[in-house]
Design brief:
The protein has 679 residues and is an alpha+beta fold. The chain is built from 25 helices and 15 strands. It is 47% helix and 14% strand. Zinc ion binds next to strand 1 and helix 18.
Length: 679
């Protein structure tokens, strides 16, 4: 299941308060958030405000958890594709020790390629999943390779020849491992995906393998397959290689455990126990312990410091079973949390008044705990591309019986906002001044509120019909689940209840969100799709699905209109109230699809509205976007935590904000790299 709201806010979609004060000063302030820029990516830093408000024990806990967070980077590289580690290491050796004209275009292209590999934790684009195309010549590559001393290359993949052969094939052969995750209908998704969760196994075999494991009568099933690679043993039998101490990825997991044990010493008793359970899971690999940990974790709502540091999200597996490793160490933003506390305290009201069929409503909404957090360290699948909201755990039955924890990561959204100032995006793509003004005024609140509603109520709402397990929607499950949470947020952001609760003072907050959401879903998000491609990514499919469905259904009433002025296309919402009604209708249908596991209806909805791209509009968006010179994606470098020593004791932890993306990546590859090149 998918509980991540990834990239609703990006430098492109973010609409800040910039246009009302676009003086030099603002722009310069914004620039200081930018650390690097390459290809379609901008690297920013985030600040960790209020770190000094933590007690020394809490700071120590953050410090040690942060070190655990840095230990799983290699795991993710290997999970994304089994050639990623040898490729990264070879490129790094060439980058540091090879000889080339560093002012040449080839060198610039080579450096860009390496920066992209670091950003994506592998050779495939983090969002589109397509393999990167090198912009340097093979000749240049060969020369750089041969000028690099051989002892600088990893010696744990094979011979020098084997290593360089595979690296070159990965980089230069477009037919080889072209796509990280393929979710195309009607093909063997495992055979056509480069991810490293299965090897030598067909989709049918994998599906049968896990179906046979599951007991349909079990109401508290473990997350089968979550922490292992499915492959074959010497006799050709299917076997799981489990990620645990002594199993696959052991060298990295041992380090994670080491730092978690240190962290334990500074945790309160409740957290000490949950960290202990996590360690125990890493040692045993037993998925029941994973569930036990998640139950302890979700029930701990009082600790100021919190963390994610495990195999968590399943976006990278076409079958949605296997989880990538990720970490996010954080602490509660007490002031901003008041807003989410009001929302979650009223969770039952929202559930009862939802426009969905009564059969699919939860009678009793349990433990929706929502908070606003400050991220202190990002690792694995949260780094450098970072979510702005998280809702965990993912197991449906734990959510049903124990609730879930939902967070909005406000220092990350703040950093996006700052970086998005004064870009001219809004002026280019939003036709009506009234819409722009509304967004300038209320866009930031609307964004945070959307995230709150999506994460703390949307994902946790609704229930499955008896006998429905929750994985029936297969490769459409992610997009439909995100659509469900988005629709819940969109429907309720315009509810008078929010004014009654004192969260908003005007419907303009909702209308700001509506005009922006529809514009993004029908049009501007296409800037992140390569020419000639359709939409693959689940969140993008979800947004186009919602926007296009509402456009089509509202045609009779002209709810949403495409307007062309001076050859430029705009999307305008003419009737906000009616649009809200459409959001409610679609929410009802998507909930029905999920609750009944109606694969065919789900497939049709996604394929009809969420996948196909209008090539002409796509080209127009790319052209207008290029003229603005915006980076469609952003990511972050981490702060550094330095212990302050006195008489051999740590008396404080200080935060430092580095400003070099390259240095941080090289430092992580040198000092936080624990896996061999072949796993
Ligand atoms: Zn989500």
């Amino acid at each position: 299941m998918i509980k991540y709201l990834v990239f609703t806010v990006m430098s492109v979609t973010i609409i800040s308060t910039a246009s009302c004060h676009r003086g030099t000063e603002t722009v310069e302030t914004a620039r200081s958030w930018d650390v690097d820029r390459f290809d379609d990516i901008k690297i920013l830093r985030y600040e960790v405000p209020d770190f000094d408000s933590l007690t020394l024990d809490e700071k120590m806990l953050v410090y040690y958890l942060s070190r655990a967070a840095l230990c799983g980077r290699d795991i993710l590289f290997d999970q994304n594709c089994r050639y990623n580690l040898p490729v990264r290491r070879t490129l790094e050796a060439m980058y540091e020790y090879g000889e080339a004209d560093r002012n040449s275009a080839d060198w610039a292209a080579f450096e860009k390629y390496l920066k992209k590999v670091w950003f994506a934790n592998g050779v495939h684009h983090h969002y589109s999943n397509d393999k990167f195309v090198p912009e340097f010549t093979e000749n240049f590559f060969d020369e750089l390779l041969s000028s690099t001393p051989q002892e600088r290359f990893p010696d744990d993949y094979g011979t020098y020849q084997e290593l360089t052969d595979i690296v070159k094939r990965v980089i230069f052969d477009p037919e080889f491992v072209p796509l990280r995750v393929n979710q195309q209908d009607g093909v063997d998704m495992l055979a056509t995906s480069a991810m490293n969760y299965y090897e030598g196994v067909t989709q049918r075999e994998a599906e049968r393998f896990y179906k046979a494991m599951a007991d349909p009568k079990d109401s508290t099933p473990v997350s089968y397959g979550l922490n292992s690679k499915l492959t074959r043993d010497g006799d050709g039998n299917l076997v799981e290689r489990v990620w645990k101490v002594g199993g696959m990825y052991s060298p990295a997991i041992e380090k994670i455990v080491y730092w978690l044990e240190k962290a334990q010493e500074y945790a309160n008793p409740v957290q000490k126990a949950s960290i202990g359970k996590l360690i125990s899971f890493y040692v045993s690999g037993d998925l029941r312990e994973y569930d036990e940990f998640n139950i302890m974790w979700v029930q701990d709502t009082l600790s100021r410091v919190d963390f994610v540091c495990c195999f968590t999200e399943t976006y990278g597996d076409p079958l949605g079973l296997k989880a990538s490793w990720e970490a996010m160490i954080n602490f509660k933003n007490i002031e901003a949390t008041r807003r989410t506390e009001i929302i979650s305290a009223n969770a039952q009201w929202f559930e009862d008044n939802s426009p969905i069929d009564d059969r699919f409503k939860k009678e009793e909404v349990k433990g929706v705990s929502a908070k606003v957090i400050t991220a202190a360290m990002l690792g694995g699948d949260c780094y450098p591309a970072t979510p702005i909201g998280v809702n965990l755990p993912n197991a449906d039955w734990i959510r049903r019986d124990y609730g879930s924890k939902s967070v909005t990561i406000e220092n990350i959204t703040d950093a996006y906002e700052e970086a998005g100032k004064g870009t001219g995006f809004l002026e280019e793509f939003m036709l009506r001044e009234e819409d722009r003004e509304r967004i300038v005024k209320y866009g930031s609140l609307a964004d945070n509120l959307h995230t709150d509603l999506h994460e703390c109520l949307g994902h946790g709402s609704g229930q499955l019909a008896p006998g429905v397990k929750g994985d029936e929607l297969k490769n459409y499950g992610s997009a439909l689940e995100e659509a469900r949470a988005d629709l819940f947020a969109l429907y309720y952001i315009a509810d008078p209840k929010l004014q009654e609760l004192g969260i908003v003072t005007t419907p303009d907050v909702a209308w700001a969100e509506y005009s922006r959401y529809i514009m993004n879903g029908m049009m501007t998000q296409l800037s992140r799709v390569q020419p000639g491609k359709n939409i693959e990514q689940a969140h993008m499919r979800n947004r186009q699905l919602i926007a296009m469905w509402c456009y089509e259904q509202g045609k009779g009433d002209n709810v949403i209109e495409k307007v062309v002025v001076d050859g430029k296309t705009y999307v305008v919402v003419n009737d906000f109230e009616k649009l809200r009604g459409l959001f409610g209708q679609l929410l009802k249908e998507v909930q029905r699809i999920k609750s009944t596991g109606d694969f065919e209806a789900g497939r049709k909805l996604v394929e009809t509205y969420g996948v196909q791209v209008d090539p002409e509009l796509h080209a127009e968006v790319l052209e207008r976007n290029a003229a603005l010179n915006l980076a469609p994606y952003s990511g972050f470098i981490n702060p550094v935590y330095n212990p302050v020593m006195e008489n051999g004791n740590i008396v404080d932890i200080q935060v430092e904000y580095p400003d070099s993306y390259v240095d941080q990546m090289l430092e992580y590859s040198k000092h936080w790299s624990f896996l061999p090149s072949r796993n």
